[in-house]
Amino acid sequence: MPIETVEDAISSAKALYRGRDQYLFAKWDWWSSQLGPQRPFTSITPDDVDAGISVLMSTPANRFSTKHGLIPAKKQRATGTINRYIASLGTLYKLLRTHRAIPRSFVSPLTRGMRLPESAGRTLQVTLADVHKLVAAARLSTNRKLAAMIAVACTTGLRKGAIQAITWGDVDMKARTIDVSRTKNGTPTRSMLPQWAADELRRIRPDNPEKEILVFGARDFKNAWRRTLERAGLPEEWTFHHCRHIAASILAQSGAALPVIMQALNHKTMSMALRYSHVNTKALDAAVCAAWG
Fold first, then answer.
1. What average pLDDT does the chain have?
2. 50: which residues sit within 8 A by CB, 6+ positions away?
3. Which of 30, 55, 186, 197 could form a disulfide with 19 if both were Cys (CB 3.0 to 4.6 A apart)?
């Protein structure tokens, strides 16, 4: 189908996308409403994108309620959220160009300087003791799988969606590996489990499970997570996504090199892994001592 309008472009991109970002389509739909679904796709300019960014900065985000549907939130969007909207446009153009849905010579309206400056992010000063305390608190939960789920999340850095999609066929208990065929950025990854995390996973493993059975499933566990944080005496504002940042922080504290952190968290660029470099004091100490004796 020839791409003529914004609506055509987004429909084609949705059909081509193979990643696991559950919010990407919503961002594309927002851009469609902002730019105009019947707007000629080739007519979008950097000024149009800037106008969209201004709207994102000046209006609060909507949030979804199972009772009332989309309702306005009170807080303004964070700069990181706005940058993800900008990045979603980049993903749209890259996807269409890669699959020859638009000419490779097509010039994207995204330009340097559009991204907003962000804070250092969630580079947590967390210890192994904190992680074990969190897992121990989860064992007291009525959700019998929560402790294993937290252990996997904190040691592999896998996102919630990827973890809930793991089947027993993806897990090799002997090798202590978990294979994820499709991550948020659309690429496969293999994660390694330390022995203690593998032991947590073994606690919930059925005898001879069928390969296609989900290990954790899509069950909501927000209340169980909140109570676990309370039991562990850890910050109540932590979300389950903090486990991903915990994985990166612990690796960095151990002296892991940036490429290792990139591989563990399946980052495509080093810029994300660099956010954790300031806690990599072991590697810095070794380099300083080697240089200065």
1. 89
2. 114
3. 186
The per-residue pLDDT for range 93-131, each reduced to its tens digit, is 999 999 999 988 888 999 888 988 866 555 567 889 999
Tokens of 207: 């005898």
* Distance in angstroms (rounded) separating the CA atoms of residues 239 and 186: 23
Distances in Å between the alpha carbon of 182 and those of 42, 185, 201, 259? 31, 8, 21, 20
- Phi then psi for 117, rounded to 5 degrees? -65, 135
Rounded Cα distance, 115 and 266, in Å:
22
Q: Which residues contact 136 (CB under 8 A, 6 or more apart)?
A: 147, 232
**Domain annotation for the chain: domains and CATH numbers:** 6-98 (no CATH), 128-292 (1.10.443.10)
- What DSSP assignment string belongs to 152-208? HHHHH---HHHHHT-BGGGEETTTTEEEES--TTS--EEEE--HHHHHHHHHTPPSS
Say what the pTM is.
Answer: 0.69
As a whole number of angstroms, the distance between CA 220 and CA 10 comes to: 30
Alpha carbons 4 and 38: distance in angstroms, whole number: 8
Rounded-to-integer distance, Cα 131 and Cα 252, Å: 15
**Using one digit for the tens of pLDDT, what is the confidence trace for 246-271?**
999 999 888 888 888 888 888 877 77
**Residue-wise pLDDT tens digits, 7-33:** 999 999 999 998 878 789 999 999 999
CA pair distance 239, 261, nearest whole angstrom: 21
